[in-house]
Specification:
The complex is a heterodimer of chains A (296) and B (429). Chain A is mostly helical. Chain A has one domain: Orthogonal Bundle (MetI-like fold), CATH 1.10.3720.10. Chain A has 14 helices and no strands. Chain A is globular, with a radius of gyration of 24 Å. The N and C termini of chain A lie far apart (49 Å). Chain B is α/β, with parallel strands linked by helices. Chain B folds into 2 domains: 164 residues, D-Maltodextrin-Binding Protein, domain 2, CATH 3.40.190.10; 207 residues, 3-Layer(aba) Sandwich (D-Maltodextrin-Binding Protein, domain 2), CATH 3.40.190. Helix content of chain B is 49%, strand content 14%. In chain B, strand 4 and strand 5 form a beta hairpin. The N terminus of chain B is likely disordered. Classes of the chains: A mainly alpha (296), B alpha/beta (429). Chains A and B meet through helix 2, helix 8, helix 11 and helix 13 of A and helix 1, helix 5, helix 6, helix 17 and helix 19 of B.
Amino acid sequence: MSGGRPSTAGWWLVAPALLVIGVFFAVPVAAGLLLAFTDFDVYAIARPDRLRVVGLANWGRLAHDARFWVALRNTAYFVLVGGPLSIAASLAAALLLEARLARAKALFRTIYFLPVVTTLVAVAVVWRDLYHPRHGLLNAALALLGLPAVDWLGDPRWAMPAIILLAVWKNFGFNMVIFVAGLQAIPERLYDAARLDGASAWQRLRHVTLPMLAPTFVFVGVITLIGYFQLFAEPYVMTQGGPANATLSVVLLMYEEGFRWWNMGTGSAIACVLLGIIASSTVLQLRLRTAEAERE
Amino acid sequence: MGPAGGAAAALIPRRARVRRLAAAALVLAAAGCGRGERGSAVVLWAMGREGEAVPALLPEFERAHPDVRVRVQQIPWSAAHEKLLTAFVGDALPDVFQAGSTWLAELAVLGAAEPLEPTSDPDDWFPGILDANVVEGATLGVPWYVDTRLLFYRRDLVPEAPRTWDAWLAAMTRAKARAGPDGWAIVLPSREWEPPVILALQAGGTLLRDGDTRGNFRSAGVRAGFAFYTDLFRRGLAPRSGETATANVYQDFARGFFVFFVTGPWNLGEFARRLPPDMQPRWATAPWPAPAGAPWPGVSLAGGSSLVVARTSRRKAAARALVAYLTAPAQQARFYGLTGDLPARLSAWGRAGLHDDPRARAFWIQLQSVRSTPKIPEWERIAAKIGQWAEAAARDEMTTDQALTALDRDVDDVLAKRRWLLGRREAGE
């Protein structure tokens, strides 16, 4: 390399990547942020003079919009209940797969992973039948147990649990694969030592497996949190946010405002709020983990 | 959701991904070639079934216009509205496109639609449908096919179609008593805004006031219509969970699980196809009953699709000729045969043999008294709000009056920009 200092050469090397990131990520994000301060709508598409800069008014309107608060509450419900449930299911599946007695591990790993790579729209067709109030498999099972039938997708109290169940089933395979990798990285000698010390299976799980999985937990927790905050496809195809807004999520509301009603201003404002929530809760989660790690 | 997409990408081996990218690039290149070809053809966007059926009508048009080629692109209904807007923004609109009649006001604001000559024989069209295509004095679309909603019912269980609200209510009460706790008198799709709006219009209500700049939902007429609607749920005549209470509308209708159903002409064919043969003589259609003091039938909504010429089209003469051809009586009658879509032209009904069909007869009567929804670009949003608050009242989460108060507040908010624009226009003049 003859001309230029090493640092210049470095910049040239990363320039193509930076350019692509700039054009397809930074510019749209900045444009979205700017849009959030305007009332860009169907009137303004053809006539820019009908665009008003409204400052923080979009957020002011959101603060008074009952549906926005419902969407926030529903999303929090989904993240706080669905997230831990999903991680627990992934961990349980991973432990089962890695158990000494397990046979045909590769087969089961594939089967458990299948929902992750299956198209949600196809899955939704099947799950709508499972959830059917009169002919669904789920209600048939309830009837066998002598329990009353539930109108899963038609009753506002049950619609979100139904969506959570679907999302957990659909997504647990992804985290499971990561947990399996984490479990395989734990040296066998630690278990041998624990066994020599007379630790029971539960104690080995509690004091060897879980602490050794801590870094995996951080990764899985953050990824799941970010993914679950962006709840969209499940209610979009299963319930369209209903019944009575019981499954309306923040992203679904954003989609409606931005692309159905073409209120890009309001839609961008919602996107900013979601970005803030996801960023701050990710930071919070990482802080908690660090504090925990220092205590131990 | 996030993790799923990431997972899929992570699982695909890198080489496969490269190959996929190459394939995508080829597709893009092919699309680029397509654009060059566009110069010689009139491009028509049609949705769903219409998009599948319309090519059959085109050879005759191309024979009559040897210098014009027509290229049909099918657009799925679910994405049609978004696609038209994005195409407008990206300056990629086709020459002619199908548009739901309630979208015309939006197209007018955008300036996306080329104003057309008013029809030379207005007596050959349903007046309410024709009116729906005129926005602020300009004809923006030509009706292609029409639809409206009315009652489908079991004629073996309801001997005579009710003509007044009172008679209808009595018939529904009897039907519910016969059906018992597991059945219903009527099924109304829970989130659809059409039934409460139709009832409000029948009761003489006007949905918006002050030049369509404010909600008028607490006025007497609208209130009466909404009260009738929510009463259907409160009296237990209709299931609160709407159509999800039925597994399969057709099977449950055949079983007598419910007696009345509010729907449109697309279900004429479905009912004929899906109901068992012994059920065929036992169902019928009827125009809406009217409240006391109003003429029968009660009004319904002007629906259907129009054909629109894009203002950006560079082949406007050919585009207009195509629209005139597709909306001529002969083609409308053929189109009915292909799709079951009801013709917008009166003379096409005779050609298609529709006057001999008693179930189509109810639509013929109903279509003489249909009205369009307010012709403002905000209407779809307002309609969604109506559906939302009507559902809240139907589910007994609040009283009808509380729902209407909330609706007025929301609608005033939606119309804030329209008030600003009109105020500015007045100040400017």
